[in-house]
Amino acid sequence: MTFPISLALPVRYPGPPPAAADVVVIGGGVIGVMTALYLAEAGQKVVLCEKGRIAGEQSSRNWGWVRQQGRDPAELPIMVESMRLWQGLSQRLGEGLGFRQSGVMYLANADRDLEGYERWLPHARANGVDSRMLARCEVEAMLGTSSRWKGAMFTPSDARAEPWVAVPMLAALAVEAGVRIVENCAVRSLDLAAGRVVGVVTEAGRIACDQAVVCAGAWSRLFLGAHGVAIPQLSVLSSVAATEPMPEIYQGAAADDEFAFRRRADGGYSLAPGSGHDFFVGRDAFASFGAYLPVLKKDYRSTAFRPAAPAGFPDAWGTTRHWGDGVSPFEATRILNPAPNMSFIRRMQDAFARAFPALGRPKLKAVWAGMIDTMPDVVPIVDHAPLAGLTIATGMSGHGFGIGPGMGRVVADLVMGRAPGHDLSRFRLARFLDGSKIAPGPAL
After folding, report:
1. What does the domain layout of the chain look like in residue ranges?
2. Tell me, what's the pLDDT at 305?
3. How far apart are CA 363 and CA 353, in angstroms?
């Protein structure tokens, strides 16, 4: 059972790329797609280059949550805007987008969980988000089971959507707005003159441009590093499963320490380990050990450490860091398609069965995994690079799908030199160079 994303899928946007554009967006995930859409709607001539397929990597492999709840305080205002944009996109694109404001619930296994939720609630109130605490009896009533949970935090206005359907639909909307998307077209390098962007070199030829945006997800560090721009981004593997259709226990999304679930449009649930993930140790991981020590101390019990693969992975031991304008690692791995951790999947099934004994152990129809591009403080880089004409939007740290529309609007304004409308200081690139304390914030 595997998630149906592979090179067997037809190329929707074959190219070839044009000779020139105002902006080239590198990466066809949700951040790149939404950035391209808002640039085009502002009158820019935009080309989006994707080495594999639109939404082929983490943008289609995520949990499908569209949540304000638990966000880092610096992300929350952008996420509130993003929720409004999702509502508008749903009206434009219809039911097929899968957008439903059916609520998100964080379930408390222990008193310390409830205390953490209570500490976060002032951020919700400050941003007009309707998060509130639930007592044990309310959780029991909403989930229809004798509760093993002490309570929960609940945000009724939070939502869900179908990632593999939604992001390609948004890409089609971008094309209607004038974006030129080219799949199977890796950007090998930037073309620089006197320290500024004058074009990009793709495997299909050069595209002249004054602006480029790196939205390359797990591949961003490798691409930027080849141009002397160092970011401490790494990747963690998240394993997910889809169940066969089953009775509805809750129409939204919920999670505790052991498992997370989200109702799907096909009548099943997307299930994932609540906190378990795999961390692959390669050259970049060794180089970034100090920067990641605070988050590793916090999450080491839920992290499975593995040696990085020899190839086919950004931090693989055999991945070259220097290729010039020649064949790049991005062409060697068109779609990053890691194997899921079946041990985590089986434990998640068992936890679900314990929580909902009337339903039993869920039957799975598909399993998959994705590589989450994460940062040491679990918030992204959204900033201009030290190369004129280059903007970075990466390291969404597993939060990218829901915040994609709002973040795309912000990045588009950055590229065009407009005020983004939000305080982006927490997302600046220089925080890793200026002595700032690098640690996760009060997000949940």
Report:
1. 23-103+157-432
2. 78
3. 11
Can you say how many angstroms the Cα of residue 36 is from the centroid of all Cα atoms in its chain?
17
d(CA 298, CA 150): 22
Q: What confidence tier does 5 reach under pLDDT thresholds 50, 70, 90?
A: low
In terms of phi and psi (left: phi > 0; alpha: psi -120 to 50; beta: otherwise), the region of 62 is beta
CA-nearest of 161, 170, 168, 160 to 55 is 168
Beta strands in 109-186 (DSSP E): 132-135, 151-155, 159-160, 180-182
Using the predicted structure, report yes or no on whether residue 361 has a pLDDT greater than 90: yes
In whole angstroms, what is the distance from residue 89 CA to residue 80 CA?
A: 14
In CATH, what class is 23-103+157-432? alpha beta
- Does the pLDDT value for residue 1 go beyond 50? no
pLDDT tens-digit profile of 174-221?
999 999 999 999 999 999 999 999 999 999 999 999 999 999 999 999
Nearest to 220 by CA among 67, 63, 57: 57
pLDDT of residue 219: 97
| Long-range contacts (CB closer than 8 Å, 24 or more residues apart) made by 258-266 | 258/109, 258/347, 258/348, 258/351, 259/348, 259/351, 259/352, 259/355, 260/63, 261/352, 262/63, 262/64, 262/65, 262/160, 263/102, 263/160, 264/64, 264/162, 265/98, 265/162, 265/165, 266/242
- The percent of the chain in helix, strand and coil, each rounded to the nearest 5, is 30, 25, 45
Residue owning tokens 């404001």: 101
Q: What are phi and psi of 361, to 5 degrees?
A: -70, 125
* pLDDT higher than 60, residue 2: no
pTM for the predicted model, two decimal places: 0.96
